[in-house]
From TrEMBL:
It comes from the Bacteria. Residues 15-228 are annotated as: Phosphopantothenate--cysteine ligase. Keywords: Decarboxylase, Flavoprotein, FMN, Ligase, Lyase, Magnesium, Metal-binding, Multifunctional enzyme. In the C-terminal section; belongs to the PPC synthetase family. In the N-terminal section; belongs to the HFCD (homo-oligomeric flavin containing Cys decarboxylase) superfamily. One of its GO terms (biological process) is regulation of DNA-templated transcription. Catalyzes two steps in the biosynthesis of coenzyme A. In the first step cysteine is conjugated to 4'-phosphopantothenate to form 4-phosphopantothenoylcysteine, in the latter compound is decarboxylated to form 4'-phosphopantotheine. Catalyzes two sequential steps in the biosynthesis of coenzyme A. In the first step cysteine is conjugated to 4'-phosphopantothenate to form 4-phosphopantothenoylcysteine. In the second step the latter compound is decarboxylated to form 4'-phosphopantotheine. Residues 10-224 form the DNA/pantothenate metabolism flavoprotein C-terminal domain. This is Coenzyme A biosynthesis bifunctional protein CoaBC.
Length: 228
């Protein structure tokens, strides 16, 4: 009995995926982070690998094993993630699933901050580089297909449309991350896929799915586009 060969619609394609949160140090023992588990990004990397792609996954700190056959680079901060992403170029398809911390601490303590009678330490925040926007706006090495996520807790579609335009990416997977949805850290996701069709933005609303099913649906949609 010979097992039928898996269809490998992304054979020969290089795919880059970011995943997980980033950790932004406050001092040697503390950091700022968010509730991202990395599950959605890891599932996308695994699905792209199964579809035959050569996949590099750049992940912040998560409690997940390397997906089989995927090159995994583990990073801590947003700036490290950006450097690793730049080093992985060129690629055919870049998918930015990481929940990058928007701010880092400018006045990071070299030593553990101590309680003093002077009160609480003032944390100065500065904005992190926008990894997705940086890559989407590259003149030379911009991947032909750049895909982002839009994590929103209100005005989902309007915010996602604005994000698509602002970031210069081709597609956005918009998801409601309000606490009641359980998306952050959970196993399911409800996606609205926004794609640019010339000057128009097309919105496809998918039913609630597991993060693995979302990954498979996204890879199938990429394969359909790649075939054209
Ligand atoms: N992203 C990124 N680098 C950042 C911030 C976000 O690469 N510094 C990417 C995320 O991986 C995601 C997309 O940009 O694909 C949107 O992230 P999101 O947090 O929803 O958007 P922001 O532009 O940070 O806007 P806000 O958090 O204010 O809604
Ligand atoms: Ca953000």
């Amino acid at each position: 009995f010979v097992r039928p060969a898996q269809p490998r619609p992304l054979a020969g394609k290089r795919v880059l995926v970011t995943a997980g949160p980033t950790h932004e140090p406050i001092d040697p023992v503390r950091y700022i982070a968010n509730r991202s588990s990395g599950k959605q990004g890891f599932a996308i990397a695994a699905a792209a690998q199964t579809a035959g792609a050569d996949v590099t996954l750049i992940s912040g700190p998560v409690d997940l094993d390397d997906p089989k056959g995927v090159t995994v680079r583990r990073v801590e901060s947003a700036r490290e993630m950006l450097h690793r992403v730049e080093a992985a170029l060129p690629v055919d398809i870049a998918i930015f699933a990481a929940a990058v911390a928007d701010w880092r601490v400018a006045n990071e303590g070299e030593q553990k901050l101590k309680k003093t009678s002077a009160g609480m330490p003032p944390l100065q925040l500065v904005e992190n580089p926008d990894i997705l926007a940086t890559i989407a706006k590259l003149a030379d090495k911009r991947p032909p297909l750049v895909i982002g996520f839009a994590a929103e807790t209100e005005h989902l579609i309007d915010n996602a449309k604005a994000k698509l335009a602002r970031k210069g990416c081709d597609w956005i997977l918009a998801n409601d991350v309000s606490p009641a949805t359980g998306v952050m850290g959970g196993d399911r996701n409800t996606i609205h896929l926004l794609t640019r069709e010339g000057a128009e933005i097309n919105v496809d609303s998918w039913p609630v799915m597991t993060k693995e099913q979302v990954a498979a649906a996204l890879v199938a949609r990429i394969a359909k586009t790649a075939e054209k």
